[in-house]
Amino acid sequence: MILGFFILFGAYFYCMLLLVMGFKSVRFFSSPDMTGTSKEIKPVTRFSIVIPFRNEAENLSSLLKTIEALNYPSELWEVIFVNDVSEDISEEMILNAIEKSRFSIKLLQNKRISNSPKKDAISEAIKNSNFEWIVTTDADCELPKYWLKTLDAFIQKKNPVMICGPVFYKSNSSFLENFQQLDGFSLQTVTIGSFGLRNPLLSNGANLAYSKVAFLKVNGFLGNDHIASGDDIFLLEKMKKAFPKQVKFLKSKEAIVSTKPQQNWKNVINQRIRWASKTSKQKNITSLSLGILVLLVNISILALPFFMIFNYKNIGFYIFLISFKIGVDYIFVHQTAFLFDKKNSFWKFLLQPFAYAVIILAVTLGSLRGNYTWKGRTFQKQ
After folding, report:
1. Axis-axis angle for helices 265-279, 352-369 (nearest 10)
2. What domain range is 326 assigned to?
3. Per the structure, how many domains does the chain have?
4. How far from chain centre, in Å, is Cα 304?
5. Could you give the 3-state DSSP secondary structure of residue 382?
6. What is the arrangement of strands in the sheet containing 257-259, beginning at the earlier edge strand?
7. Strand pairing of 377-379 and 372-374?
8. What angle separates helix 352-369 from helix 315-339, to the nearest 10 degrees?
C-alpha cells in the first residue's frame, strides 16, 4: 500500500511539474502599441463576437458596458446575440442596446437541430456573421478594453487559425467563490501548460477565437453535437488535428475575460458534471489519463485520514503525502494567479485540496448517474 501511494503521488508530481514547465514556456504577449516599444499596429482583422444567452438579465448590463468600452474600430467588428428561449427580459435588454449602439449588434433566435443548444446557437450565429473571425464569449462575462486589439495583433504576428484566451473567475473572498477562483487558476495552468507542451488539452468558450474558414473546413460541431456541452474542447480537438501548428494560446493580461462564479454548491457541482460530460468523451489519451490520475490522487486525499487512524505506525508518511499534495497544488495554482495579478494566500489555500477532493468525488458520482441540470434544463448522459 505504501509503495502504491508513493508511485501514485510521484506520478502526480511529475505531471504537475511538466505542466508548470509548459506554462512557463508559453511567452507573454502584448500588442506592440501597448508596450510603447514600436509603432502602433494598424487593426485589420474583422471580428464577429458571438454570445449565446438564456435568462441572463442579471448579467447583461455588465457585459454590455464592457462591449461598449471595447477599443477597436467600429467598422471592423459586430456582436451577434443568440437568444435560446429566454423567459426573462434578456431579449428586451438586447433590443434596447441595439437602439443606442454605435456599432453593429444583431439579435437572432436559436434554431434547435441537435442535443446541444449552445452549439446550435453558435452555428446559427456563424451562418449570419459578416466577418472572417469568430470570437465567442458568455453572457455572464466582462470583456477587457483591448481584447480585440490584442487578438488582432496576435493574429497578424502569429498567423493562427484558433486562439484560446485566459478566463478569470471573480471572487468576493467567500469560501465558495474563492474555491471556484482557485479551481479556475488550476484549470488555466493545465490549459496553458498543455499548450506549452504542444499537446493542448483544454480551452474555454468564454474566450475563444477562430477563423470562420477553418471552422467550416473541420465541419464545425458535426460529430459531437449529440453531446450537450463541449463547443470549445471538441472544436479544439478538430482544429489541432487539421491545423497542428496554428492553434495557439494568447497568454496576455490585455486579453483576460472575467466571468462570474456560481452562487451555490449545487450549481458548482452541476457545472462540473457538465464539464466532465464532455472531457470523458475526448479522444485525447493524455487528457483522459491525467483526469484519472487526478481523480485517484483526490480520492486518496480523502482516504488518508482513515489510514492515519487505522495504520498509526505510518502516520508520518501519510502526513507527508497530504503536505506534499498541498504544496504541489499551491505552486501549481500560483502560476496562473500571477498571470491574473492575484495574491495567492497559502493559508486560505490550505482547505482547497480537501474541498476539491470532495467536489471531484461528488462530480464523479454525479457523472455515473448521467443527468445534470443547467440553465433550467435537464440533460441526459450521452
Report:
1. 60
2. 1-382
3. 1
4. 31
5. coil
6. 141-142, 257-259, 167-169
7. antiparallel
8. 90
For the chain of 382 residues, list the mean pLDDT of each consecutive stretch of 10.
90 96 94 61 95 95 96 96 95 94 93 91 96 97 97 96 96 90 94 96 96 96 82 94 96 96 91 76 82 93 90 90 93 90 81 89 78 71 57
C-alpha cell recorded at residue 368: 455515473
Q: Residue 186 and residue 336: Cα distance in Å, rounded?
A: 7
Q: Cα 65 from chain centroid?
A: 22
Nearest to 181 by CA among 337, 293, 75: 337
Can you state the angle between helices 315-339 and 285-310, rounded to 10 degrees? 140
Compute the Cα dihedral for 305, 307, 312, 313 and give only its sign: negative
Q: Which residues pair with 379 in a beta bridge?
A: 372
Q: Which phi and psi (to 5°) does residue 245 adopt?
A: -105, 5
42 vs 77: CA distance, rounded Å: 15
Residues 6+ apart with CB under 8 A from 274: 228, 229, 372, 374, 379
CA dihedral sign, ordered 226, 231, 233, 235: positive
First to last CA, the chain: 36
Rounded CA separation 84/277 (Å)? 21
Largest CA distance in the chain: 73
Task: Show the cell assigned to 334.
Answer: 500560483
Single-letter code of the amino acid located at 350: L
CA distance 287 to 157: 29
Is 203 exposed, middle or buried (CB count within 10 Å of its CB: 0-12, 13-18, 19+)? buried
We report the CATH number of the domain holding residue 153 as 3.90.550.10
pTM: 0.91
Q: At what angle do helices 233-242 and 265-279 cross, to 10 degrees?
A: 30
Write down the H helix ranges in the chain: 2-25, 32-35, 57-68, 90-100, 117-127, 147-158, 175-196, 212-217, 233-242, 265-279, 285-310, 315-339, 346-349, 352-369
Residue 110: half-sphere exposure toward Cβ, Cα within 13 Å: 23
User: Residues with Cβ < 8 Å from 363, sequence gap 6 or more?
Assistant: 269, 272, 273, 276
